[in-house]
DNA sequence: GTCTATACACAGATAGAC
DNA sequence: GTCTATCTGTGTATAGAC
């Protein structure tokens, strides 16, 4: 699977996402007309991403946001009870995007090697597709209040556990060599994160998301595949 | 080389660092007595790191800093002309720590394989030793003003180029296999960053810096070493 | 549902006593 | 060299007109 194919299956527009958020927060949002609410939520999120990318969420003032969205301060507060709530909504929904999609991908495959590939690629493609959400959830994680922080930390552990488990079951089937899988999973995660944290770098280097994902998988497989089988079975899964 | 040995060679205390900063900024710092200035600079930096780690530099108020250091607002402004300058000083010095030390390590080795190992480990050990500095330079990079930002970006490229060049020269000597070395260097960097960005995770997993560094090197070598030579020369450099 | 005007808190920064 | 007191701008948030 490459990114183009991935998009066909998973594509959901930023409008769709805004609609999800609207439905989840119907009671706390003062605007009741779905169409207007969704349209403005989309505008707000995009503005938040643009501003926070440059100077961070904390440094973004509500006046900045008002200017960028073209909406007044009063209107903004009709959509969110405050800046804190806005942050929290984006964080929570960001994580739910990651979780939902990753679970779906993971469930699609059985064979550990294929599954590992799918999950690694899937995560990268997701992060490409929802790149502002991914960047934001990572960079602004520090700013959420302690009570919500637990949720975020457990999400982090959860996505890592998916990979760890694949490596472990692959070891049981003699497909992957035995090792500290938790540590390997962390390294994989670090490389995946690289894609959305330093996207500007790869645009400059002219590296496509497919190239990046393939390179990452090559690295992982060079390390994880049981050595003796490497030469013999190399072509089996390609 | 392991972390313990590394420390013996490169160890410089946070007091030493504070002294370096003092000497570099003698003219802009109002306090002229070296001993007091250095002692307080050290206190300020440590406080900045503690507070920014939790909520980010932007969210830290000068009053927070005053409370944490036990110094008054007035005193703080005798050390720095403003919050912006404080940020800039830490960023600049952080990068100079990285650059100086990495250059030194890189110059010590000749053989590409050894050199690659040394540079990878060196970077991780450095980031362990100066972990607040590394974390801060990464997370607060967005907040510096555009004019200084160029310096920071070029530093980023510089450290990556060191690794790219090692891989390239290793390829010329048939030690590493041909590949997109720029991309590989990026991946290596991402994994190195993982150590100081998610230090809490590894403390929790009980993974030592030596284990982490060795694991990373294993991954890199499994991928980079020219395949045919792998089995034959495996023990040569260990 | 969206706007303008404004309340009130707190930020960064400085002056001047000690 | 360090402190307290204070200036001034800007931040978040709300009230109430349209």
Structural write-up:
Two copies of one chain form a homodimer. Chain A has 238 residues and is mainly α. The C terminus of chain A is likely disordered. Chain A has 13 helices and no strands. The first copy, chain A, has one domain: Orthogonal Bundle (Tetracycline Repressor, domain 2), CATH 1.10.357. In chain A, helix 1 crosses helix 7, helix 3 crosses helix 4 and helix 9 crosses helix 10. Chains A and B meet through helix 10, helix 11 and helix 12 of A and helix 3, helix 10, helix 11 and helix 12 of B. Chain A binds a DNA duplex (18 and 18 nucleotides) through helix 5.
Blueprint of the fold:
Two copies of one chain form a homodimer.
Chain A: H1 3-10, H2 14-24, H3 34-55, H4 62-69, H5 73-79, H6 83-108, H7 112-129, H8 131-139, H9 146-172, H10 181-197, H11 199-205, H12 209-224, H13 227-233
Helix pairs in contact in A: 1-7, 2-3, 3-4, 3-8, 6-7, 6-8, 6-9, 7-8, 7-9, 7-10, 7-12, 9-10, 10-12
The structure holds a DNA duplex (18 and 18 nucleotides).
Task: Please give a handful of descriptors for the protein shown.
homodimer; 238 residues; mainly alpha; Tetracycline Repressor, domain 2; 13 helices; 77% helix; 0% strand; elongated; DNA-binding
């Amino acid at each position: 699977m490459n990114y183009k194919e991935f998009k066909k299956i998973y594509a959901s527009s930023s409008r769709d996402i805004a609609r999800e958020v609207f439905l989840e927060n119907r009671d706390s949002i003062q605007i009741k007309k779905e169409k207007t609410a969704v349209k403005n939520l989309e505008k707000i999120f995009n503005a938040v991403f643009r501003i926070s990318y440059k100077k961070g969420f904390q440094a973004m003032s509500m006046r900045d946001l008002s200017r960028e969205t073209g909406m007044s301060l009063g209107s903004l507060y009709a959509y969110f009870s405050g800046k804190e709530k806005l942050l929290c909504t984006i964080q929570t929904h960001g994580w739910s995007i990651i979780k939902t999609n990753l679970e779906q991908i993971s469930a699609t495959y059985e064979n550990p090697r294929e599954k590992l590939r799918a999950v690694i690629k899937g995560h990268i493609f997701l992060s490409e597709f929802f790149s502002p959400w991914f960047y934001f959830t990572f960079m602004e994680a520090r700013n959420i209040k302690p009570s919500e922080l637990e949720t975020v930390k457990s999400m982090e552990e959860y996505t890592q556990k998916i990979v760890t488990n694949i490596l472990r079951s692959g070891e049981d089937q003699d497909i992957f060599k035995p090792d500290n899988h938790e540590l390997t999973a962390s390294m994989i995660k670090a490389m995946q994160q690289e894609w959305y944290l330093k996207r500007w770098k790869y645009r400059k280097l002219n590296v496509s998301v497919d190239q990046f994902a393939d390179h990452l998988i090559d690295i992982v497989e060079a390390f994880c595949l049981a050595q003796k089988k490497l030469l013999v079975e190399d072509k089996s899964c390609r």
